[in-house]
Amino acid sequence: MKKSHNMARVIVIHCLCLILSGEMGSLHGVYGRPNVSPPQVNVTVTENKDAILPCSVNHLGELIVWKKEGLLQPLTVGNFVFTDDERLSTACELKGQDTKCSLKINRVSVDDAGIYFCEVSTNTDVHLKHQIRLNVEDNIQIGITYQACSLKQSHNMANIIVFICSCLILGGEMGSLHGVQGRMYELPSFNTTHVNVTVIENKDAMLPCSVDLDRGLNVLWQDPEGFILTYNERRVIDSNRFSIPRLTYTDWSLYIDEVKLSDQGSYKCSIGPNPVLMKVVSLHIKVPAKIVSNRSSPILQKVKEGDTVILTCNVTGQPTPKVKWYRREVTESADAKKKAIEIDSEVMIIHNISRHSDGIYECQAHNGVGTSASRLMSVEVEYGFPPRIRLPNLRIGQSVGKDTILECLVTAKPLSIIYWMYKGKETQTSSKYSVVIYNEGRDAIGLSLRIHDLTEEDFGEYTCIAKNHFGSVKGSLTVYENADTRKIEPINPKNESPAVLGAPEINMTVLVNQDTVLPCSVYYLGEPNVYWVGPDENLLTMNDVVFSANKRFSILRPSIRDWNLRIDAVKETDHGTYTCGIRSNPSLKKVVRLYVKGEHI
Fold this sequence. Notes:
Elements: E1 12-14, H1 28-31, E2 40-46, E3 50-53, E4 55-58, E5 65-68, E6 76-77, E7 80-81, E8 88-95, E9 98-105, E10 114-121, E11 127-137, E12 145-155, E13 158-170, E14 195-200, E15 205-207, E16 218-222, E17 228-231, E18 234-235, E19 242-243, E20 254-256, E21 265-272, E22 277-291, E23 300-304, E24 309-312, E25 315-318, E26 322-328, E27 339-341, E28 347-350, E29 359-366, E30 373-382, E31 385-390, E32 395-398, E33 404-413, E34 417-422, E35 425-426, E36 433-441, E37 444-451, E38 460-468, E39 471-481, E40 499-500, E41 505-511, E42 516-518, E43 522-523, E44 530-533, E45 539-542, E46 545-546, E47 553-556, E48 564-567, E49 576-582, E50 585-597
Parallel strand pairs: 1-10, 2-11, 14-22, 23-30, 32-39, 41-50
Antiparallel strand pairs: 3-9, 3-13, 4-9, 4-13, 5-6, 5-10, 6-7, 8-9, 10-11, 12-13, 15-20, 16-17, 16-21, 17-18, 19-20, 21-22, 22-25, 24-28, 26-27, 26-29, 29-30, 31-33, 33-37, 34-35, 34-38, 36-37, 38-39, 40-43, 42-48, 44-45, 44-49, 45-46, 47-48, 49-50
């Protein structure tokens, strides 16, 4: 106890009644949580007099702990004095429903001034306490002084629980305290080295403490706030997560089940009373990284082009996790490689966002404890442009009684209204027509129109129309009849050199099971010997002769210059590069790349 020369010394007796498991433990469910009143009591006593500090607890428990401010170890636990100061004594007894536990200090001195605590904890881990400030005066004789405090809780105006802490100062001539010595004992085997224990949250922890108790020493465990957890093998608090299983005779290790982050701190294993020794065990809790959803950005955000976008990933964990950000395109599969973003904070800001910055953003948090945590956030940038149309074929020839498929590819944002028109009427799915819409990629769709069992009335111009709020566009193609008889035309009326007409390379896209025609027209002198070579570089046709064993291939000649390759009921294996050329002049040729798609995408 620290000595002071101020005549107005204060001892605060803080009464905290510690409730253990027992018959009275269920009273809090009936009467609710008590309150402390009044907050402080002042007591004055003359130096060298005796002081008796009683603590009375009604209905709340049976074990009372006395402490003094500034000391790590308690002074008493129940009837046990946990100090080598022989001037202190305690007497705890049960009278009716009250537990009374007085702390007596013989021959008080100015060193005894300070704040004392009488502590009690409830069966709900709520610690109750009260303090009394004691002034020690030199050479002033006073009579008996009482100071009392009460802690009460009423329930329906009855069944009052009263927590009474009274301070009784008795006069008397007790002599001097100075020179009082405790008995000397041989020091026990007790390792006081500071120990650090690290445990992952929700795992079990063991805080080591070993001591030989042959001489009747007592062992006390206190939590980081100084409250008593165990007294010898007895658990003082109500929580059954704390225990001392005593695996060996000298083992007094404290076990904590399913540790929480709030359990972190320095625990004290103390022995006493002669001597009083203490071992500090610091418990460190590691918590795996976690992303708090309700404090993070939503998983889907729609913004306008040019906006500022703020993405937040609220991360918790012990130690503090590191955060990394990634991005991938919306059109990419989940297995696609993510692109790392050079940002390592919980918040990412995208200024003036463009359509090229939308996609799937992912934040990952990791602190080396367990697995990493991640969160996906989709950012959709709203922008727009009028539709654009592409028709793979502007002319399609077919015979009466056959089916044919028209295709229209549209790019637009937002994706637009799209339909086919024939002779001023919209074509809709019926016994005559089959209309299919399929995905062609980002901001692109395709519309196919299958015409069943062609008749003379079905030949003519078909128009594909696409619209959105930015504008509209249309494109037309012609379906014509393949004639069985053709007008004889001059082979080369202008006596021009042989040539392959049209673009030297074209791309065509057809649906599975659709009939298609690969175009090839030539000017020539004499017999041209026009041929077709397939994707496997095998010869398919020479003039009108078909060399392929596949009967789906044939030569279609709407005019004298046409050497079109017809493929009935296209299959996925038909995709590839087809070449039309003139045998007499290998440099004259036309390349057609055929792409085959499924009917529904």
